[in-house]
Amino acid sequence: xxxxxxxxxxxxxxxxxxxxxxxxxxxxxxxxxxxxxxxxxxxxxxxxxxxxxxxxxxxxxxxxxxxxxxxxxxxxxxxxxxxxxxxxxxxxxxxxxxxxxxxxxxxxxxxxxxxxxxxxxxxxxxxxxxxxxxxxxxxxxxx
Length: 143
Description:
By secondary structure, the protein is an alpha+beta fold. Helix content is 21%, strand content 32%. The protein is built from 2 helices and 8 strands. The strands form 3 sheets. A 4-stranded antiparallel sheet has the order 3-4-5-8, covered by helices on one side. A two-stranded parallel ribbon has the order 1-2. The longest helix has 17 residues. It is globular and about 35 Å long.
């Protein structure tokens, strides 16, 4: 499923069409919901190039604000890259995004620099992340 979404975003972007990614119906009130939303939003950030939008709506009508929307990642510094571990990453001027699309295996990754993890909590500097299956991280360079 994730590969189909990835390819759909890339095809839409390549043809100058819009892709709307949505995490509709996710309650957004527990840790599992946060993982689902971050996975979907990080995927949109990985492959979007100006024609991809993301929304989080519990019931398809009321947009919910998600803490990661406040990050100022800046412009992408290139295309998404798949690491040998299977994790996909993309660097931005002021941060990075990573997604573990595996449906069954956790992945660990070390970062080239220290990033801040602060969504829904106090900011913490981090140089590595353990990623459960079907998860994403969105990180800023400064806290």
